[in-house]
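question for whoever is on the cluster today: can someone run the full assembly for these? two chains, 480 residues total. i dont have access anymore since they changed the login thing
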Amino acid sequence: MKIMIPTPLRQYADKKDAVEVNAGTVAEALSGLTSRHPELRQHLYTDDGRLRAFVNVYLNDEDIRYLSKEQTLVKDGDTLSIVPSIAGGIG
Amino acid sequence: MATITQLEPVTLCKEEILRYSRHLIMPEVGMDGQTKLKAAKVLCIGAGGLGSPLALYLAAAGVGTLGVVDFDVVDFTNLQRQIIHTTADVGRPKLDSAAEKIKAINPYVEVRPFETRLTSANALDLFRQFDIVVDGTDNFPTRYLVNDACVLTGKPNVYGSIFRFEGQVSVFATEAGPCYRCLYPEPPPPGLVPSCAEGGVLGILPGLIGVMQATEAIKLILGKGEPLIGRLLLVDALAMKFRELKLRKNPDCPVCGKNRTITELIDYNQFCGIRGEEKPEGGSKMPEISVEELKRRQDAGEDILVLDVREPHEYQICNLGGHLIPLNDLPKRVNELDSSREIVAHCKMGGRSAKAVDFLRQAGFTKVKNLTGGINAWADKVDPKMPKY
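^ ran it for u. tokens below:
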């Protein structure tokens, strides 16, 4: 499956905009991602291993908080999107 | 369908009918829609990147009353994207410049300028005077303030946000749909997400996103089409891909949920973890050196290694001939540095280099200092020929 990396986090993922992983659940997919790009871990997870509140994860177009959270099952062809909050505007 | 509260009836004069001809011949607008636009009052938070196209198009479309909140002054770095301001406006308050352009495009628009910072003390009174709030701010405390004040006053919040070449758009409608806190219950800690000033932004992107916000504001006024309520539109201008995600109203949302705990505006700087002026960790004892002092000591022939922790593309704009190691690469390239030498770290303005100094001191470097004000201070005080960015 494909994990979409948002612009602010690409600097921690070798500037990639998407990464392919093999996974059965959202947790496995994210773990596959952070083992390949360890710097991403602190941006996605708190010190006690919970997903950060300002990082939303979507399976296709659905927020995993309204599915089975990180235990949500995934299959080939699914797209997981990491959607962090951004604040820019006036600049 | 979400529509805004009842608008008072207005009529169009002959000149206005001619001006809005291309709207009036469309069944989706017509006389009915155009008078709704004229009766509507829209508040734009910010007259910058997003606020520029927003205000210009809402004015051209005939929105009768446009409020604008801003307290900034136009500078040269704004002109790459803030198209409501021109080169001649540099140094003027953005509000004066914006009001002038709005009036020039459409004298039938009433502009209500508010030269103030939006705060918990003034937001509710301000929002109550308008039908729709359009959020074009550039920082998390104001984003949460705008959201909460919209929920508390029952005003739809037309949201847009940008970073580099990526944008987000949605409509947080207080009754019908989720709010910003349903999407993001908490802000990121300060420093984790770079601002436009640090991260840069493709100048066209606020145009694209701001025009989408203007489109949503106009649809809400007309009560036509499908507003972006409960949907988050992600725009990637580089790939030119648009994706849409579902947003749900969070039943446990602290401001719009059933058991809400936030019933008045709070201290948003505190909520976002900002304590006055941002100082990097360990900042109390940050060793600093001024640009004048560095210049004097370099001229005296002292052995000082200048460490530039910016990105390579910034080095190309201007540099002090320093050794370039971008801040993010410092941990893996620290062995390039000789800890016995005196090191002065710099970036553009001093923020990133303070983090670098902090890191190096923890790594055992004792003779390392931060260049106060960065290369911009060097351009201001030492070498006026050096470009600033």
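summary bc i know u wont read the tokens: The CA atoms of residues 74 and 80 of chain A lie 9 Å apart. The first strand of chain A starts at residue 2 and ends at 4.
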